[in-house]
Amino acid sequence: MVQATPFFLLLFLALGADGVSAEKCSLMGHWINDLGSNMTIESVNANGDFTGTYYTAVSVHPVKVEKSPLLGSQHVSDQPNHQPTFGFTVHWTFSDSIAVFTGQCFVDDGKEVLKTMWLLRSHVDELRDDWKATRVGYNEFKRLE
Ligand code: BTN
């Protein structure tokens, strides 16, 4: 019995560690990216659809930024250690533009990281300005504890 204790302790730790990592890469919660923008994902339903809010640290024009709604979708899986791909749209409430993000959640050294790329479509008044209306970029998000 005395010898069995370390075995069960190790088993518990191994299963426990797996359990913890299975919990990881849930998109729900508060995130901050490399620009200092804050994002909150409020709920993810069984289909992987989610809603949230985005508070950007930067904007194209010097305006007062506002918290803006986002709508997204992620792949769901029963697999432990699932690192889901996802996408979401941010409907900026303080500008005429729309951003779409696509990415994947990874667990790196026990910490979740969201690797994303985005397209930001700005409004232009004329067709001849279409060529300059879309920006592209990359953001990395970390969970705010
Ligand atoms: C606008 O300026 O028209 C709306 C704000 C755009 C903010 C962009 S979206 C991509 C990039 N990542 C961020 O966190 N903010 C900028």
Question: What is the compact description of this entry?
Answer:
With 145 residues, this protein is mainly beta. Helices cover 14% and strands 45% of the residues.
> Could you tell me the mean pLDDT?
88
Distance between the first and last residues' Cα: 40 Å
* Overall geometric form: elongated
Number of helices: 1
Oligomer: single chain
Helix-and-strand structural type:
mainly beta
Total number of strands: 8
Biggest β-sheet: count, sense, barrel? 8 strands, antiparallel, barrel
Spans with pLDDT under 50 lasting ≥5 residues? 6-22
CATH superfamily: Avidin-like
Describe how the helices and strands are arranged:
Elements: H1 4-23, E1 29-33, E2 38-44, E3 49-55, E4 68-74, E5 85-91, E6 98-108, E7 111-121, E8 134-143
Antiparallel strand pairs: 1-2, 1-8, 2-3, 3-4, 4-5, 5-6, 6-7, 7-8
The chain binds biotin.
Descriptive labels:
145 residues; mainly beta; Lipocalin; eight-stranded antiparallel beta barrel; elongated; binds biotin
Structural write-up:
With 145 residues, this protein is mostly beta strands. It has a single domain (29-143), classed as Lipocalin. Helices cover 14% and strands 45% of the residues. It has one helix at 4-23; strands at 29-33, 38-44, 49-55, 68-74, 85-91, 98-108, 111-121, 134-143. The chain has an eight-stranded antiparallel barrel. The chain is elongated and about 50 Å long. Biotin (BTN) binds next to β7 and β8.
